[in-house]
C-alpha cells in the first residue's frame, strides 16, 4: 500500500537546508506558472473554455456546493486508496484525462506523462490527437496502464484501424468521446487565429495510420507548405462524426474485445442508453468546459448519473478537478475513478516528467490525507462523508439563519 503524504514532509525537511520546490503546490499558481513556459496562444488553447467561460467556471463552483464531514476517533491511521478497474489494480483512483497536442507543452509529447503514471501505478487515457503516435507512447512507457481515446472519425475504416492499432500496441481500454463531434465555440482561439491542428500539431496517431495517410500525396515533402495544406484538408475530411448514435458502440464491439467506455455523459438517460448498447463504463464529463458554454457542471451531473448506473458499470469523472479534496468529493458522490486534466499538462510544460510527477503526487498526498482525516480509511467510505454545503441546502420553514452555518 503506497503512502503519498510523506513527500510533503520531505519538502519541509529540504526547506531546512534552504531548498524550496521549483513548482507550486497551489493549483492556481501552477496554472499561472505554466503561462511563463508556454506561448500565449498555446496557454490560451489549453486553459480557456467555450464561449464566455461560464461552464469552465461552473465546473469549479460546483465543488463549493458540497462539503466533507470528518468523523473523529475512528482509530484509522492508514488509508487504502487502491482501486481495481477492468482487471488492473491502480494505486489510487486517479488517472490522467486525455489531453491532445502535448507536444505543444513539451518536446517529448505524451511520453513523460505515460512514464510517470507507470512508475506511480496509475493510468493514462491517451488522446487520439496525441503529438506522438499511440505506438510511440506505448514503446516509451512499457508496462504502463494506457487507454486509448477515440474521437469517432467520419471514416469507419479509420476508426477500425485506430482501435485495432491500440489493441495491438497493448492499450487496455477504448474511451469513445461523444461530446466533441465538432469543435466548440472558443473565442480565445479565434482572437489568436490559432488552430494548432491546421498547423500540423496533434497528428502523431493520424500520421502513423495507413488509412489516414492513404489519400495524402507521396511526392510532397513533409513539412512543406503544400504538405501542411494537404494534411489540414485530410484532417478536416475525417474529423467529427456528426451522425453518430449509440449504435456506434455495437460497431466497435465487432472489431475489439477491449472494454469500451463512453465519455461525455451528463444526463442519466444517456448513461442508460450507453449501457443498453454495450458500454462497459461511463465517464461523466463536459469536456472541461471546452465544448458548450453554460452547459451543466459535470459535478452537478455526477450524483444522478451514478445513481442511475447503480453499479452496473464503473463511473469515471472529469472536468474541474484540481486538488485531492476535489477528488474526494467526486469519489464521495459516486465516481469510481477521477480523471485529472489541465494540471498535468501544466506540470509537463513547466518541468517535463518531474512536473507531471509533482502534480500527481501533490493531488495524491492531499487525497490520502483527506481520506485519513475524514476517518474513512478507504475510498468506498468517502460516500458517507460528503454532504450538501450548508449554504446549498434547501431552506426549511421557519429558518431565519439559513445563510449562516451554526457554530
UniProtKB/TrEMBL annotation:
Cofactors demanded by this protein: FMN
Domain of life, source organism: Bacteria
Catalytic residue positions: 287
The keyword Oxidoreductase is assigned to this record: yes
Keyword set includes Flavoprotein: yes
MF-aspect GO terms: FMN binding; oxidoreductase activity
Limits of the FMN hydroxy acid dehydrogenase domain: 19-392
Protein family membership: Belongs to the FMN-dependent alpha-hydroxy acid dehydrogenase family.
Protein name in UniProt: Alpha-hydroxy-acid oxidizing protein
